[in-house]
Amino acid sequence: MKTSHVWLIAGAFALGGLVLQGWGNAEADNPLHDPLGSLGMLLVILPLTLALNITMRRRRDALGESSPDSVEFRAAQQARSQAYGDAVILGTVLFAVLAIVADTLAALTAMAFVTLAVGAFWVRYRLARRALGA
Questions:
Q1: pTM for this one?
Q2: How far apart are CA 124 and CA 106, in angstroms?
Q3: Organism's domain of life (predicted)?
């Protein structure tokens, strides 16, 4: 399927989602009270995100950026690792701020984020080492 067709389909879903949001209850207190608005929001966000992901992957493949020997691949990998470190530090700061300012549930949610982020890294690291035979 051509990239332009992917974007046309994603745009059609997004327009349908906007229509559903218009039919929904704008004064609802939470998303559970407005199922049409929530479904519309998903129909806007999800197809556009998938179309963007497909487009970026196709461009990387066409330009050879997905090859592990390319400069772009190494730069992207370095940027991802630095962004991960920043996310862990910011998550820890968020936990500390929420522990002081907000309630316990918010602080525990931030701590769960930090724990899951670090845990996901170590699981992926171990799997990658095992796949490489180390």
A1: 0.54
A2: 27
A3: Bacteria
Structure tokens at 55: 């487009």
Q: In the numeric block, which tokens belong to residue 11?
A: 């745009």
Tell which residue, 92, 59, 89, 77, has the closest CA to residue 124. Answer: 77
Separation between Cα atoms, residue 7 and residue 46, nearest integer Å: 12
Which residues, 6+ apart, have CB-to-CB distance to 20 below 8 Å?
A: 36, 37, 39, 40, 43
Distance of CA 16 to the CA centre of its chain: 22
Structure tokens given for 35: 């199922």
**Crossing angle for the helix pair 104-131 and 71-101, nearest 10 degrees?**
150
Query: pLDDT (tens digit, 0 to 9) for every residue of the chain, 134 residues total?
Result: 898 999 999 999 999 999 988 887 777 777 677 888 888 889 999 999 999 999 988 988 887 767 777 787 788 788 888 888 888 888 888 888 878 888 778 888 888 888 888 888 888 888 888 888 86
Q: Which residues contact 120 (CB under 8 A, 6 or more apart)?
A: none
CA atoms of 113 and 37, how far apart (whole Å): 27
Token digits of residue 12 = 């059609």
